[in-house]
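Sequence in, structure out. First:
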Amino acid sequence: MLSLDLHPIFRNNRDIELALRRFIFAAARSGDPVAEIIPGKGSGQLNRRVMAFLDQKHIQKLYVRRETDPGNTGRILVHFT
């Protein structure tokens, strides 16, 4: 499973946007059915930012569904097939 951990770059908005964009396009091309994005638990601000990114219309076209991992709320699972 492909994984993107946002902990190391959580303070730089441009780096977060770029990392998410690169990751989601690479994950969509990879053929893996599920990829994980790890914004962490924290205050929830980074989690909301990731969800807003995934909710953009041109990004939604790349995946089937997304969900917060029920066992770990600091992890978002993105399903491609």
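Second:
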Amino acid sequence: MGAWDVGPFDNDTAADWCGDLQDADASERPELIRRTLATVAGQEGYLDSDVACEAIAAAAIVSAQRGGPAITSAYAPEFLRAGGGVEVPDDVVALAVRALDRVAGDDSEWRELWEEADAGDQAAAVFAPIRDALTR
């Protein structure tokens, strides 16, 4: 995982996914977010860190649309940093919570990589304000 920090957008995979979201037509963005979260929320077995990183970025975006932490990372989609938004259907909020729980759970390469780097608690702490906004 090419990561430079623990933030939801602070790795190569999330930054690339955000670029795809930026490039997508505005009408396609909600479905891209839904698909990304559904891939992780519904996956059984070992969870690859790349799909986990994409889901974390997607969940952070959903959270920001619901009053969660503001999106300020230079690696987040430009339209969001510029004050734009994306229409997030209500059912995607629950999907985002399930995806975050899956990423932080057992059989997650993302969790294992951060634990091996002795930063598991720090990386998981990034979830707290994002998840809190999603479950309000």
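Remark: The CA atoms of residues 74 and 81 lie 8 Å apart.
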